[in-house]
Each structure stands twice: as structure tokens, then as C-alpha cells.
Design a protein that fits this description.
The protein is elongated and about 75 Å long. A hairpin with a 3-residue loop joins strand 8 (about 115-120) and strand 9 (about 125-130). It has about 260 residues and is of the alpha+beta class. The chain starts with a helix and ends with a helix. The protein has helices at about 1-25, 220-240, 245-250, and strands at about 30-35, 40-45, 55-60, 65-70, 75, 90, 100-105, 115-120, 125-130, 140, 145-155, 160-165, 175-180, 185-195, 200-210, 215-220. A 6-stranded mixed beta sheet has the order 1-9-8-3-4-5, with no helix packed on it. Strands 10-11-14-13 form a 4-stranded antiparallel beta sheet, with no helix packed on it. It folds into 2 domains: about 30-130, Immunoglobulins (Immunoglobulin-like); about 140-220, Immunoglobulin-like, CATH 2.60.40.10. Keywords: Cell membrane, Disulfide bond, Glycoprotein, Immunoglobulin domain, Membrane, Receptor, Signal, Transmembrane, Transmembrane helix. Pfam families: C2-set_3 (PF22705), V-set (PF07686). This is Ig-like domain-containing protein.
């Protein structure tokens, strides 16, 4: 009988304790994912409710780095991590309307990860889940034994593929290297070794990431000259001029 009374008291004390613990914990808003472009500005969205304006942003994935704080009606940046100095701001004119979004400028690869917003009455988790430095430029040039394709300053890690026109069943020897810079961006380069049987083929190089790709075609010199000759013939025809084969010989002498 005494044991039953003890069990009843303990159970109700435990329930009472849990209810009080839940009463003081902050409500957690569902996770939000954002993606950003390297060295551009990015916004981590957040809204809050409540009368007390207290805003703290932390980069949890980097060890709870202090990203930005705001209270007493002003920014509080004494404890801000050095890595975020001069790169963060809030939308001060919207704070009174319940907006606590963080603006991050000159986004770096190290900025990827999980961020927490903590306020007086609420806690949000933001996943900065994807950073992209898109493929802007692809260079293809001819070397002694073949052709080389190269692209720089890419994130995430890119892939490089070769294709031919017309399509070919031939197997080509190529060497591809990928290096990472101090900024954690990727440079990629691939060299294709050509033989005498490859003269009738034109080659294309494609550098791609999960969301972006760029291709460049490498045309043999004869193809370029023929295209130039055809364009010249069409031009003279449209201008009503008489075409002379001596003009074509002038073009072909460079081949």
C-alpha cells in the first residue's frame, strides 16, 4: 500500500516536472534549406513572434560560431566570429514586423552548414545546404600531341567529359586532373591524346556540376576554313558580287 502511494507520487511528480520543462523550452520551427552562389549575397530567412526583440545567429556546424547578434535595439557584434566580420547584417527596418532574416555577403565555401536562430521566444534551424560556384568559362586549346580542356573556380567538384562529332566508337587516351584551391574551389583539366585516324573528327568538352554545365567545341582547322569559305561565298552572293575562285584560293592557302 505504501509502495503504491510512492509510485503514484513519483509518477505525478515526473509528469509535473516534464510539463514545467516543456513550458520554459523554446518552440522549434521546422528546418529551412537555402542555396547560395559563391561570392554573392545570400539570405537566411527567419521570422519570429513575441514582444522581446532578441536575435542571435550561430553557425552550429562550425562549432557554434557567433554570426550576428541584436538586442537592446542595436547590433551587438563584440562576440562575432572574425570570419563573419563585415559580412553580416539584419533587415533593421523589418525587425519590428517580426523579421529576423540574416543577410550574408561574399559567401564562401566555409559558410556552408547548419545555422541556428535563437530569440527570446523561439528557435529556428536553417540549413545552408548548397553552395555553387558555377562553370563560367571552358577553354580548349591544341598542344603537341592532342588537345586540352580546362576550367577553373568551380564548386562543388565538377566532372569533365569528351564527345565527338560525328559520334565515334574509337577509344581515346585522356588524362584528367582535379585540384582544389585555398578557397576550396575546384580546377579541372583534361588532355586528350590524338592519333592520325582522328583527323576527321571534331571534339567537344563539357564541364558540369549538379546544377550547371558548359560545353566548348574544338574544330579542326580544315573545318574552320571550309566554314569561312562557305560564309564568304554566301556573303558575296547576297551582295550581288561576282564570285572568283581566286578568292577561295586566297582563303585555302592558309591551310
Amino acid at each position: 500500500k505504501h509502495l503504491k502511494g510512492f509510485f503514484f507520487f513519483t509518477t505525478h511528480w515526473f509528469i509535473f516536472f516534464r510539463l514545467n520543462a516543456d513550458d520554459v523550452s523554446l518552440p522549434v520551427v521546422a528546418d529551412t534549406e537555402v542555396s547560395c552562389i559563391f561570392m554573392e549575397s545570400c539570405m537566411l530567412p527567419c521570422s519570429y513572434s513575441g514582444s522581446d526583440v532578441v536575435i542571435h545567429w550561430f553557425q552550429v556546424s562550425a562549432g557554434d560560431l557567433n554570426v550576428h547578434s541584436f538586442y537592446n535595439n542595436q547590433d551587438q557584434l563584440k562576440l562575432q566570429s572574425e570570419r563573419f566580420r563585415g559580412r553580416t547584417s539584419l533587415f533593421n527596418d523589418q525587425i519590428s514586423a517580426g523579421i529576423a532574416s540574416l543577410q550574408l555577403t561574399k559567401v564562401e565555401v566555409q559558410d556552408e552548414g547548419r545555422y541556428n536562430y535563437e530569440g527570446a521566444d523561439q528557435k529556428n534551424t536553417i540549413f545552408f545546404s548548397f553552395l555553387e560556384a558555377p562553370v563560367h568559362k571552358v577553354d580548349v586549346y591544341q598542344g603537341e600531341n592532342g588537345i586540352t580542356c580546362r576550367s577553373e573556380g568551380i564548386y562543388p567538384k565538377p566532372e569533365l567529359t569528351w564527345s565527338t562529332s560525328p559520334p565515334s566508337s574509337l577509344t581515346f587516351k585522356n588524362t584528367t586532373t582535379v585540384n582544389q584551391t585555398e578557397q576550396q574551389l575546384y580546377n579541372i583539366s583534361s588532355s586528350l591524346i590524338l592519333s592520325g585516324s582522328d583527323h576527321d573528327l571534331n571534339f567537344s568538352c563539357t564541364v558540369s556540376t549538379r546544377r550547371n554545365r558548359k560545353s566548348v567545341a574544338f574544330l579542326k582547322m580544315l573545318t574552320v576554313i571550309i566554314a569561312a569559305a562557305v560564309a564568304f561565298i554566301i556573303y558575296t552572293y547576297k551582295k550581288g558580287k561576282q564570285f572568283h575562285f581566286t578568292s577561295l584560293k586566297f582563303i585555302l592557302k592558309f591551310y
